[in-house]
Write a structure and sequence with these properties.
By secondary structure, this protein is mainly α. Among the domains are: about 150 residues, no CATH class; about 100 residues. The chain is about 70% helix and about 0% strand. Helix 3 crosses helix 5 and helix 4 packs parallel to helix 15. The two termini are about 25 Å apart.
């Protein structure tokens, strides 16, 4: 029992590391916690042993004094001598256990991460703190490795899709055309009412021809008419240029509108990607979801089995389970066979109670003293010397 109490497995639940997740604990922390636990438990054995030794010595002194006061031939001397011998044996056993624990403490060699004992402890601890979903995930990988690998690959693709930058959404040809149109609109606005040389010559010749046809070829009148016609054409050209520029701005093909449209498109595409990835994480065939579903199925099966096979008040009358079998159960007849074996083993309830009562009475009559119990427990410390090697 002392060996069991000092084992590392007993320390996982009480250790601060036992409530953490695997990624939150380093290998060095596991090894140091193991070493500190060993020394702490040895100190506990030594302290309790010394306290027990003091109690045994006090009882032994009182027993020897009583024995010395009894006259020779007194019938009580026999039982007193037996009790004194028992106390001496207990004292020897506890002293030996304390001495052994002190030797182990003195010669204790801490394990390291690269030692066989350290690697074994690290593996054991990490197995202890595994979540049910982690264990279910390992089971899924063993049951159907292809489906497991497919789920992992699918998760990676969703992750890459959600985090990968969005590629180019504009073509160089379209951007060059847009730039040319925008520059041409700006150039036309800069010309204002100015007419081209050829266009101005045509307006002038048309005005002169009209004046000649009317016989108005003398004086300043032809020149004035020519100027009026050319100016009016310039104003019309300016208005046409303004209208063309306004239409270009309203078309959404300018640089500003194109940039806004591209940003909106990228945002919408990113939202679609994130939504798809979020849906996969929330309800898709990810490893976590598959493991969680498997864990829930196992727990439901266990609860159903326990309830279906639970004894009713007043007797051992379990019935064959109607719940789904455990995933560990290969043969469906095993639970029924265990139920029948259980009923055959104990027979009837009355027989069981009578046997139990008789065993309890016998145990009470043979109950050892408190010193003897500690001696039996602490005496096991000596067995620790054989499996532990000290360098």
């Amino acid at each position: 029992m002392a060996v069991t109490q000092l084992s590392a497995d007993r320390n996982y639940g009480s250790s601060d590391l036992g409530s953490r997740l695997n990624f939150q604990v380093s290998d060095d922390q596991i090894v140091q916690d193991y070493n500190n636990s060993k020394l702490s438990r040895l100190n506990s054995v030594i302290e309790r042993g010394n306290a027990q030794i003091a109690g045994i010595n006090e009882q032994l002194a009182a027993a020897n004094k009583l024995l010395a006061e009894l006259p020779a031939g007194d019938a009580r001397r026999t039982s007193s001598e037996v009790f004194v011998k028992q106390l001496n044996d207990d004292l020897k056993s506890v002293t030996s256990a304390v001495t052994g624990a002190q030797d182990m403490q003195k010669n204790f060699k801490p394990i390291t991460m690269d030692s066989p004992e350290g690697l074994k402890e690290i593996t054991s601890f990490r197995s202890f703190v595994q979540l049910p979903e982690e264990r279910a995930s390992q089971q899924l990988r063993q049951i159907d490795p292809e489906s497991y690998n497919t789920s992992v690959a699918l998760g990676q693709q969703y992750r890459q899709m959600a985090t990968a930058p969005i590629g180019e959404t504009k073509s160089a040809q379209a951007e060059q055309l847009r730039s040319n149109l925008e520059q041409e609109a700006i150039n036309q606005l800069a010309l204002g009412s100015q007419l081209g040389a050829e266009e101005q010559r045509q307006y002038q010749q048309a005005a002169r021809a009209a004046q000649t046809a009317r016989g108005n070829i003398f004086g300043v009148a032809p020149a004035v008419e020519e100027a009026v016609t050319t100016g009016l054409a310039g104003e019309q050209r300016k208005l046409a240029r303004y209208g063309a520029a306004t239409q270009f701005l309203a078309s959404g093909q300018n640089t500003s509108d194109a940039l806004k449209s591209d940003i909106a498109f990228r945002d919408a595409l990113l939202q679609n990607r994130l939504g798809a990835a979020s849906g996969f994480v929330a309800g898709g065939p990810s490893i976590y979801n598959l493991a969680g579903a498997r864990t829930a199925q196992q727990q439901n099966a266990i609860q159903g089995y326990i309830q279906a096979n639970q004894a009713l008040p007043g007797g051992f009358n379990q019935q064959p389970s109607t719940a789904s079998n455990f995933y560990q159960t290969v043969d469906p007849s095993i639970p029924i066979g265990l139920t029948n074996a259980f009923a055959s083993l104990y027979g009837s309830q009355a027989n069981y109670f009578s046997n139990t009562y008789g065993a309890q009475v016998g145990a009470i009559s043979r109950q050892p003293s408190g010193a003897s119990q500690f001696a039996q427990i602490a005496g096991g410390v000596g067995s620790l010397l054989s499996p532990l090697k000290f360098g």
